[in-house]
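SEQUENCE WITH STRUCTURE:
===
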Amino acid sequence: MTGPPRRRLAGALAVAPAGLMRRYLLSTAAYAVSEGAAFGLLAPLLSALLAGRTGEAARWLIPMAGCVVLGWLAHYDMSVRALRLSSAIRRMLYERIGAHLVRLPLGWFDGPRAAQVEQLLGRGVGVAVRTVHLAQTLIASVLTPVTIFVFLLVLDWRMALAVLVTAPMVVLVFAAAARLTDRTEAEHDRAAAEASSRLVEFAGAQPVLRANGRSGGGRRVLGEALAAQHLAARREVLGALPGQYLGQLAVQLAFTVVLTIGLVLATGGVVSPAKVIALLVLGVHFLQPFAAVAGAASSLRVCRAAVQRITSVLSTPPLPEPEQPRAVGEPSIELAGVHFGYRSAPVLHGVDLWIPPGSSTALVGVSGAGKTTVTKLVARFFDVHAGAVRIGGVDVREISSAELERTVSLVFQDVYLFDGSIEDNIRIGAPDATAEQVRAAAYRARVDTIAARLPDGWSSRVGEGGRLLSGGERQRVAIARALVKDAPIVLLDEATSALDAENEAAVHEALAELGHGRTMLIIAHRLTTIANADQIAVLDGGRIVEHGRHAELLAAGGRYARLWAERERAGGWRLTNR
């Protein structure tokens, strides 16, 4: 939705039901026209009254009263329709955003986008819905002056021409003021976002800072961000003031022009003083809607920004679904000549890897080698730039999203739990699972010990994101999800990195049980989780440089052996060959 404000707001309203929208626009237009007509009829009424023709004034009072009644009825209907339309647009935006989000690639949610979506679904939709009420202002700013101008034209064409000449001047001044304010508001928004980010970072880093005796650390960066926000806020105020006063000045100058012409006509005897006074009242009401639009300019810009954010999400293309999805065969995994990178940063360069069905493969390498990227490509968080990722001999781009989700289970290092019970969080893996199946999976992942220590047992809430559980406990719940899902392919990315020795051994037993007859791709820095894999692939420089069994790779003395030796010197690997 780009272009002038009216076009952008029309785009925001386009999601509403057509019938409800037509009724709302009709009642809004009827109210704006009846208001203009009431003001228009006020001119001959005042003219007759000031001239002492009370009988004629009384006759004009009847149609004016009719316009007032019609305006009241239209305003009531407009208010009711606005409420219904706001609710309908809110509901449809939620539905449209929700339906689109589930079609976006999972990789789109990496980084800060999850927080942006949360803000969008909260405040963003609420602000966008305000376009319904702002549409009233925009419609009135057109139809009411047009109606008044028709009456002016009928009553005295010279005064109508004077009013018409001043209108473009007022519009141009308001447009210039809006551009000036837009620049200062954009700068303030960027500074406020930066200050907010620094404040959250400063608060979140307090445990680390205090543990290192630097409770005041980080204040310099936070102070600079707050100072920048303060400066931007001052510039916004100073930049907005000229725009506001220019708009007011333009309206006053326009009225002064109309008043001068009216005085010339009155003193020249062309128009009676009583009629001039009535026409001047009408001229004031002609210019009044422009001032209303100027007052709503800030709200218009806020709504425009919210609509643009929603549009940017809805315009993000989802990963294409195959027109004729193919069924997955045996649960093998194959990467053939895979090239991939994030934006302009290449990560994988011609990766070739074959994982037979029912086997376990460990992927090792230094941090940043692209191990997690491989798992995300297998799960189709992204599409490869070149080459192919196949499951069961079928390119993942030819498998439906639903089939791929049923085939692959993921247990990643960063585990998110919903603010529900432990049992509810496990059941996400298989919503149709019985209570016995959920408890069995929980027992195999040693989640039963977590439930036992919590006050409400299996019904204990875990808090938003699982904050009431430790990192290791959250991972055990995630492993239980994978167990109850019972998918033929399991991807493990640092799945046991946060477990203590006792729980790690227990979870390894559960993973070993899970691995029977399933294809597993395991990523870990600890060799205790990968030494017994059927094969180990070493990723370095975006390529698979070695693959084989643990003993074979050690004997080869290559990259894997050097990684082993480095971890041995660091005291991080404690393994015995079997």
Summary: The longest strand covers residues 345-355.
